[in-house]
């Protein structure tokens, strides 16, 4: 792991999660014991902390040291149970993958699946993603995935949503020129939120070519049923990303009648 002392104070980090009980069942505990030394990155964190060490620097040399090669890097923010990142890592052994997740059971499940497939191109980090991104060198990442982030449905909590202008600015620096940020949500109001954050950002281009009608005013928990009666406008979104498998989480959303919104943004190549 490469590290150097930072001369400036780190930016205030986005915190889009709530710490939960993380007791592992026997199966996941065995997976953690067996595979964490292979898959889990040591970020110099204090015990129980999701913030990285102050002197951490994630650069090309660190990538080569961890993965043992130079290859395009795909980062999933909020990898959950790991179904997507493991499936893609299995399908594309020529790519490097990094799964960022705060919840230990999800990480343990990801390790279990990765270990069963003996994957060498995947690593995991238990970290608040913006903290790690802030320590990465520019142009280190080829793609970022954010699939079904916590919607924070209450209006007063919308500011805690992961997709925010500050994160977009960080990713504009960390992605290679022409790099991609893929976002998916089954919450209509979150899709509106993404458009508000991203469509006006001059550092990104919306690659969507599918017109989608969305309310132009936000709703929250308890008022979502009013969305249909609000003024609507057309926004451009993407067809389903072929590299995203249908997880149990997404399947439940579809069965509940929710529409899946795929949004794809590309960093300017200038």
TrEMBL record:
Which EC number applies? Answer: 2.1.1.33
Gene3D superfamilies per record: Vaccinia Virus protein VP39 (3.40.50.150)
Quote the record's binding site residues for S-adenosyl-L-methionine.
76, 101, 128, 150
Q: Name one GO molecular function term.
A: tRNA (guanine(46)-N7)-methyltransferase activity
**What highest taxon heads this organism's lineage?**
Bacteria
Protein function: Catalyzes the formation of N(7)-methylguanine at position 46 (m7G46) in tRNA.
Name of protein? tRNA (guanine-N(7)-)-methyltransferase
């Amino acid at each position: 792991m490469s590290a150097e002392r930072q001369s400036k104070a780190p930016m205030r980090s986005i915190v889009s999660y709530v710490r939960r009980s993380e007791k592992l069942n026997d199966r996941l505990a065995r997976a953690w014991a067996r595979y964490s030394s292979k898959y889990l990155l040591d970020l110099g964190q204090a015990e129980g902390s999701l913030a990285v060490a102050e002197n951490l620097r994630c650069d090309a040399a660190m990538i080569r040291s961890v993965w043992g090669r130079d290859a395009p890097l795909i980062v999933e923010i909020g990898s959950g149970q790991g179904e997507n990142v493991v499936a893609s890592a299995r399908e594309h052994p020529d790519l490097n993958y990094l799964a960022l997740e705060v919840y230990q059971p999800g990480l343990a499940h990801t390790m279990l699946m990765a270990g069963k497939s003996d994957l060498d191109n995947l690593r995991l980090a238990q970290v608040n993603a913006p903290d790690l991104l802030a320590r990465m060198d520019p142009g280190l990442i080829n793609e970022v995935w954010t699939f079904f982030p916590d919607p924070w449905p209450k209006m007063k909590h919308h500011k805690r949503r992961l997709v925010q202008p500050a994160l977009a600015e960080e990713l504009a620096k960390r992605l290679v020129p022409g790099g991609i940020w893929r976002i998916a949500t089954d919450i209509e109001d979150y899709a509106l939120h993404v458009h508000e954050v991203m469509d006006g950002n001059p550092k990104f281009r919306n690659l969507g070519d599918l017109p989608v009608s969305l309310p132009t005013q936000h709703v929250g928990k308890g008022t979502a049923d009013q969305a249909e009666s609000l003024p609507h406008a057309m926004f451009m979104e993407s067809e389903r990303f072929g590299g995203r498998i249908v997880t149990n989480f997404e399947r439940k959303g579809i069965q509940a009648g929710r529409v899946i919104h795929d949004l794809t943004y590309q960093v300017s190549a200038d």
